[in-house]
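User
New here, help please:
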Amino acid sequence: MSNIHVIDHPLVQHKLTLMRRKDASTNSFRRLLGELATLMAYEVTRDMPLQDIEIETPLETMTGKVIDGKKLVLVSILRAGNGFLDGMLNVVPGARVGHIGLYRDPESLQAVEYYFKMPSGMNERDVIVVDPMLATGNSASAALTRLKQTEPRSIKFVCLLAAPEGIAKLQQAHPDVPIYTAAIDRQLNSHGYILPGLGDAGDRIFGTK
């Protein structure tokens, strides 16, 4: 479990609890997810490489440190991953954005790809994959397998909630990819939903159910 990072900051846990409530409105759920994504982005980007540049303050010239946001790619697993993007982009607005479209077959629970679009020059870029729920792990594993074909410099996976089953699946398929999450919940139910969870993240973000 050394590559599992649970972000247990009090603000993260507070907002997550508010999101879990079944009576949280679409508006409040979406707003809280954006706030959580911003908070989690600080932890996920903690080890980003820095470079020195020379600047002038109002008083003198100095050397300061900056990150190269244009080398970072945020990859959203559609559609729920889009709920993470704005919050992450608040922290690294220079990041490029990629999309992977996957849906879960209701019978087999396996991931089926329908869309894939990435920036150019992926071999020079660090990737952060975002999807609110790591449930069965099938979609996340399929997304990472597809993404690795572009040979990015590094990959991290970020989710709001993770189930033990999903973590095991992702670690087995991609042991080199660190997982960042706000909570590890108890288990999956027979339909592949996380318990206690927060329901279907996509439906709650977009108000489609």
